[in-house]
Amino acid sequence: MLYDPTERRIRSFVTRAGRLSTAQAKAIETLGPKFCLPYVKAPADFSQAFGRTAPLILEIGFGMGDTTAKIAAGMPEKDFIGVEVHTPGVGSLLKLIGEQQLANLRVIQHDAFEVVTHMIAPDSLAGVHVFFPDPWHKARHNKRRLIQPAFVQLLCSRIAPGGYIHCATDWQDYAEQMLQVLGDEPALKNTAEGYAPRPDYRPVTKFENRGLKLGHGVWDLVFTKR
């Protein structure tokens, strides 16, 4: 059964205020009207939003947006939708969009479950990126993790055949859960024997680099839709 948005569910995020810098606030004010898409309970016409028809990649939880901007800059032939709930992150990515003149990137500030359920049409995505989601590392909080069977099934319904889902985490037990959940989804096929090499398009973040130097692991998982 696909995810039912009318059911009570456990959210995978906690909305926190966060400090909004002057530059982030200015980016929201000046660039938000063009690059932020409003949440609506209907399939969005992304070709109209971008002014073209191109392969569409969805990123869920882009944080401060550095990785998202780098990937979009490196793939100008594709369009990207970044979904994030936290306002400072939205402001940060909008600032990067302005500085780098990224015409192929739009932002939705809303709950990803609802965005995927209502705004993304079936079989319309070329790919989905979920990089370093909150690990909810305490055992009693594991149920809050984003990558769960019902949500993965929902994502698969929105990915076109041949499209992909790429997850990355630096928490080993979450990586193991991701591998189990993605591997159990019959619509998906693993591109590797277990974990995948980091694709060239995903840059290594400063935080990730520090962790790697300290011997911490990072796990990428890339599955394609059958």
UniProtKB/TrEMBL annotation:
Q: Which gene encodes it?
A: trmB
- The residues the record assigns to binding S-adenosyl-L-methionine are 59, 84, 111, 134
In the record, the note on similarity to other proteins reads:
Belongs to the class I-like SAM-binding methyltransferase superfamily. TrmB family.
Q: What does the protein in this record do?
A: Catalyzes the formation of N(7)-methylguanine at position 46 (m7G46) in tRNA.
The UniProt catalytic activity note for this protein reads:
guanosine(46) in tRNA + S-adenosyl-L-methionine = N(7)-methylguanosine(46) in tRNA + S-adenosyl-L-homocysteine
Q: Where are the transmembrane segments?
A: none
What superkingdom heads the lineage?
Bacteria
Q: In which pathway does it act?
A: tRNA modification; N(7)-methylguanine-tRNA biosynthesis
Its Enzyme Commission number(s) read 2.1.1.33
Q: Which GO terms describe its molecular function?
A: tRNA (guanine(46)-N7)-methyltransferase activity
Protein name (database record): tRNA (guanine-N(7)-)-methyltransferase
Q: Which organism is it from?
A: Noviherbaspirillum denitrificans
Q: Which UniProt keywords apply?
A: Methyltransferase, S-adenosyl-L-methionine, Transferase, tRNA processing
User: Which enzyme type, at the first EC level?
Assistant: transferase
Naming one, the record's GO cellular component terms include: tRNA methyltransferase complex
Q: Supply the InterPro entries for this chain.
A: SAM-dependent_MTases_sf, tRNA_(Gua-N-7)_MeTrfase_Trmb, tRNA_methyltr_TrmB_bact
HAMAP family named among the record's database cross-references: tRNA_methyltr_TrmB
Chain segments carrying region Interaction with RNA: 140-145
Positions of substrate binding: 138, 170, 205-208
